[in-house]
Specification:
By secondary structure, the protein is α/β, with parallel strands linked by helices. The chain has 21 helices and 26 strands.
Length: 583
């Protein structure tokens, strides 16, 4: 399931005299995540989040991963317990399994949030290396597998540290060799930089854990300075290769725009800004709110100060200190959150809370399409007036970047219209009904899968899709149709499901008039929609000049929508730090 946005060539059906659009190749980024980030499988979602942010921005990602913390030493000990000597040629093949396991589980974490991801093995990746079995040097790349994987997928997760010798045996690239893997792949892909994600935010003039003197961080460090001070932070072989191949090495912490760039020149080091945890409040603790809360409570970058719910005493499926719960929005805001993440299930209450939060000086990210579609222009105006931000990508499309796709299309020229499958619950149920399930059974299955809310009426009556149509229309045309101006088909036990039937939300522009609708139809004529399965969502936007943008992804479910709101949170955090001069 893809979560990407892409400009695709359009046949002349939409506008006979228009020129076919030329598809630009997506930018590729290489990111490396070491065992200080991937301490255990529980940390794989952090890597998926970092990849999601790049994919949402239209990039493809090669994610180089190390083994989980301690795995390499355990594998070495296991092999040597069987009498394998230190320099045995069979040893690297066993030790490299640690990185391959990490890559496979990271790809699973990416898939869970709706990213189209795959994992390659050391042999599939095809880095060729020469030299000692445990400290070889890359000398070539059999690029077929990597190229094909990048052509077909948004995220390609690859194991660091391992390579293949000319005789076909696996070799290792020395301790810290995942850094070398990442730099080498960036060079082979023709990139001029690579990003190494560490548990520190850059290169310091001395160990920042040494509190006897204040450590100073380099914004830019030369190759020689990095070799002198890098220590265990960046493998020296990777620094040497970066210098030889002209690939700058960015060293930064997770979700930090700032860090250290290692390259030709140095700049004097200076104090690194202290970044205390940001105070975050969550509104709602259902499918999405509970997923967001679970992520935040385990992330030291955030301090959860409150959770707004109807009934604070109700049992939850996320472990949370009971004193954080409140049923009073004023009490929630009295705890002075920096950011409010709004995932209420009711539109009027959500809209009122967003306005209150902005008035109180909070930034807001919302997954509540009924709330933000009421008056998106008014919410943006209030945020601007208060010097705050309101983001709502998570309110449309779940893990599919629909808001970003429409904005990309509008930035490129006049938007003529869009069509979309916007409700994962309805799409899931239509598929089950077509398979012969009874209506009540299909609804129960949607609830069990975490797609349908306790009260599914907004989904079944088309209100959910209509709200999303209104919000996408605002993004596409700068105006939003009234709620009662969107005709809607209902999904009920009277609906005759047939192959290819989809709930299509659409809006086109005819002069100054908008033509919105939410229809159950098989007459959409686009394989983008008919090929969707389960909770899949998809969007097609066409411009007046005939160009078409498409995206698809998981449109419902806890993890896909949670990932989208977490990406909005990360965007707010970066903007706040930029405002404060901290990036």
């Amino acid at each position: 399931m893809s979560a990407s946005l892409a400009l695709v060539e359009n046949p002349d059906a939409l506008k006979p005299k228009s020129k076919p659009a030329v598809q630009a190749a997506p930018e590729v980024v290489v990111l490396k995540f070491g065992s200080s980030i991937l301490r255990s499988p529980d940390d794989a979602p952090l890597v998926a989040s970092a990849c999601y942010g790049h994919v949402r921005a239209g990039r493809k990602v090669v994610a180089v991963v190390s083994a989980f913390a301690g795995a390499t030493d355990r594998l070495l000990a296991e092999a040597r317990a069987l009498g394998l000597p230190h320099s045995n040629a069979l040893l690297p093949g066993y030790v490299a399994l640690g990185e391959e396991k990490s890559a496979a589980l990271t790809a699973v974490a990416c898939d869970r949030v709706g990213l189209d991801a795959c994992a390659l093995s050391v042999r599939e990746l095809g880095i060729v290396a020469e030299g000692e079995p445990e400290h070889a040097r890359p000398c070539g790349l059999r690029a077929d597998h990597l190229k094909q994987a990048l052509d077909r997928h948004e995220v390609v997760v690859v194991p660091g540290f391992g390579a293949v010798r000319p005789d076909g045996r696996v070799a290792l690239l020395g301790r810290g060799g995942s850094d070398l893997t990442a730099v080498f792949l960036a060079a082979e892909l023709g990139l001029d930089k690579v990003r190494l994600v560490k548990d520190v935010d850059g290169l310091y003039d001395h160990d920042p854990n040494d509190k006897t003197a204040g450590a100073l961080r380099y914004r830019r460090a030369s190759w020689d300075v990095a070799r002198k001070l890098g220590g265990a932070l960046v493998q020296h072989d990777a620094i040497d290769l970066g210098e030889q191949r002209g690939v700058e090495i960015e060293v930064a912490a997770l979700d930090r725009a700032d860090g250290t760039v290692i390259g030709e020149k140095s700049a004097p080091p200076g104090p690194a800004p202290a970044l205390p945890p940001l105070k975050v409040a969550v509104a709602g603790c259902g499918v999405v709110g509970g997923g967001v809360l679970g992520r935040l409570l385990n992330d030291p970058r955030y301090d959860v100060v409150g959770v707004l719910v109807r009934n604070p005493d109700k049992p939850r499926d996320v472990s949370c200190p009971p004193d954080l719960f409140t049923a009073d929005a004023d009490v929630l805001l009295s705890r002075k959150p920096d950011i409010v993440l709004e995932a209420l299930s009711e539109g009027e209450a959500g809209h009122a809370l967003i306005r209150k939060a902005l008035e109180a000086g909070c930034d807001v990210a919302s997954a509540n399409k009924q709330a933000v579609s009421r008056d998106p222009a008014g919410l943006q105006a209030l945020a601007y007036q208060k010097g705050r931000r309101v983001l709502w990508s998570a309110s449309v499309g779940g893990g599919s970047p629909m808001i970003e796709t429409v904005r990309a299309a509008r930035a490129a020229g006049e938007v003529a219209g869009f069509e979309a499958v916007l409700n994962g619950t309805v799409n899931f149920m239509l598929e089950r009904l077509c398979d012969g399930a009874a209506f009540a059974e299909a609804l129960a299955d949607a609830r069990a899968a975490g797609f349908a809310e306790e009260d599914p009426s907004a989904d079944l009556e088309g209100l959910d899709a209509a709200a999303k149509v209104r919000l996408l229309a605002y993004e596409a045309f700068g105006v939003s149709p009234d709620a009662d101006a969107v005709p809607r088909d209902h999904l009920s036990n009277q609906t005759e499901a047939a192959p290819g039937v989809r709930q299509i939300g659409a809006c086109s522009r005819d002069g100054e008039a908008l033509n919105p609708s939410v229809r159950l139809t098989a007459d959409h004529g686009d394989p983008l929609f008919s090929s969707l399965s389960g909770e899949g969502n998809a969007l097609k936007v066409w411009n007046a000049d005939g160009r078409v943008w498409r995206c698809r992804g998981r449109g419902a479910g806890r993890w896909a929508t949670t990932e989208s709101i977490m990406a909005d949170l990360a965007e707010i955090v970066r903007a706040r730090r930029a405002d404060a001069g901290l990036n």
